[in-house]
Specification:
Number of domains: 2
Number of strands: 14
CATH class of the largest domain: Alpha Beta
Distance between the termini: 17 Å
Order of helices and strands: HEEHEHEHHEHHHEHEHEHEHEHHHEEEE
Largest sheet: 10 strands, mixed
CATH topology of the largest domain: Peroxisomal Thiolase, Chain A, domain 1
Strand content: 15-25%
Number of helices: 15
CATH superfamily of the largest domain: Thiolase/Chalcone synthase
Length: 446
């Protein structure tokens, strides 16, 4: 592929927004990553204790939209215009991420007439907030039945019809808000996006699918810029208990991707957003180009929800196809950011697939595994980890991989073994998500 066609078709990353357990914003999080810090703490509340906790959790700072300078009209859009309705925590996080990325890119557009695409990745937006509100209602009903609540008088709890009417009164707006198109509508309204709108839910690989969807719109000339955001806020103890029951949660809070004694992950709060633009357009407006998206590849194992198929080569095929589309070989890759889920079967499968494609290059290629720092961000994990990897590419520095001090020699993948300043021309990010969603993408230095 000639250099002219690369420039013509290339998609530039011009803005990064980050919000996770290591802090807020690219500068603060990069400083924490460079220092090898971990944001894993503890989830300890009445529900967690009732479910057998406390549980480990990598929790992000609370989201304060006003601190980001979001206009009041944008903040109102996130509530659907309902007076007194609180902004859903997932919507608030995604809005914050988008604003951070837009500010980083120094991007502006006509909010009434544009072709700005918006692609959002999330596993189950609004669910945690809704469940919390239902639990509050259950508590109110319990008090009402004892005559101790004016909001829930005993007369309203007399029969099932009365209860149904009560639940409708309390939660009908929340139920409508659970539909993913509502989240997309509210974010598009908040930021004035009139191009492609899309919600992606391909589990842990969602962020890479979202980048590819946005890039295709840009390459086809259907969008002038694209905002890609992914995140998850697994703050309800029910999720931690679910993964604990599956044997996938590291109960001691120590996440060891590709480690000799790896025994699970910890859920991570937060997310990331990217601004994507055609490279020529980005250069024309004088934007700082963080990296260039060279291409990705995707497939679906269609086997188990939480386990990869042991004899499958589909993940390796996706990695190889992404590199082929990007026009790079194993010798060209200078940094690998794997999924690194830190489970016995998951890491063994990913290591086998990486070795099948990269072979002996893995002996010299740095591997940056990040779940020991920010936890498993579920639907936001791929984009969250990619964004940090892009900061490493931009800085020309490989930071530490927390929790990876004792790699399993049988896997042949050793995160953190190579760190420090070095030339990073090409980054490979890959993810093998729950449900069998495989994704791989290659990014290059500007």
């Amino acid at each position: 592929m000639g250099s002219d066609s690369i420039v013509r078709d290339a998609i530039a990353v011009t803005g990064i927004g980050l919000w996770n357990a290591l802090g807020v914003g690219r500068a603060a999080i990069w400083e924490a990553v460079r220092a090898g810090r971990s944001g894993i703490g503890t989830l300890d509340d009445p529900l967690a204790r009732a479910l057998g906790g406390p549980f480990p959790l990598a929790r992000a700072p609370e989201v304060d939209l006003s601190s980001l300078g979001l206009e009041e009209t944008a903040r109102e859009a996130l509530t659907g215009g309902e007076a007194g309705e609180p902004i859903d925590t997932d919507a608030a996080l995604l809005a914050a991420l988008i604003q951070l990325a837009v500010d980083d890119a120094r991007l502006s557009w006509d909010r009434d007439r544009n072709r700005v695409a918006l692609v959002v990745a999330h596993e189950n937006p609004g669910i945690d907030g809704y469940v919390t509100r239902v639990l509050d209602t259950v508590e109110g009903v319990r008090l009402g039945a004892r005559g101790e609540s004016d909001r829930y008088p005993a007369a309203e709890l007399a029969d099932s019809a009365a209860m149904a009417a009560l639940l409708y009164r309390e939660h009908h707006r929340s139920v409508v808000g659970l539909q993913t198109f509502m989240l997309l509508h509210r974010l598009a309204r908040a930021f004035g996006c009139h191009g492609l709108g899309l919600v992606v839910n391909n589990a842990c690989a969602s962020g890479l699918y979202a980048v590819e969807a946005a890039a295709r719109e840009l390459r086809e000339g259907e969008a002038e810029a694209a905002l890609v955001a992914a995140g998850d806020r697994p703050l309800l103890a029910t999720k931690s208990r679910y993964f604990h029951d599956l044997g996938l949660l590291a109960g001691d809070g120590r996440v060891r991707p590709f480690g000799r004694d790896r025994h699970g992950f910890v859920l991570g709060d937060g997310g990331a957003a990217l601004v994507l633009e055609p490279l020529e357009r980005a250069r024309a407006r004088g934007a700082r180009v963080v990296a260039i998206y060279r291409g990705g590849a995707f497939n679906q194992e269609a086997w188990k929800v939480t386990l990869p198929r042991p004899d499958s080569a589909l993940y390796a095929e996706a990695i190889a196809a992404a590199m082929a589309r990007a026009g790079v070989t194993a010798e060209d890759i200078d940094l690998v950011v794997p999924h690194g889920v830190a489970t016995g079967v998951g890491d063994a499968y990913e290591a086998r697939c990486l070795r099948a494609v990269l072979d002996h290059a893995l002996e010299r290629v740095p591997v940056l595994a990040l779940k020991g720092a920010i936890g498993h961000n579920l639907g936001g994990s791929a984009l969250n980890e990619l964004a940090i990897g892009l900061l490493a590419l931009e800085a020309g520095e490989v930071p530490p991989s927390p929790g990876c001090e004792d790699p399993d020699p049988a896997l042949g993948v050793a995160p953190g073994a190579i760190t420090g300043r070095r030339s990073i021309r090409h980054l490979l990010k890959c993810a093998n998500g729950f449900g069998g969603f495989n994704a791989a993408a290659v990014f290059s230095a500007r």
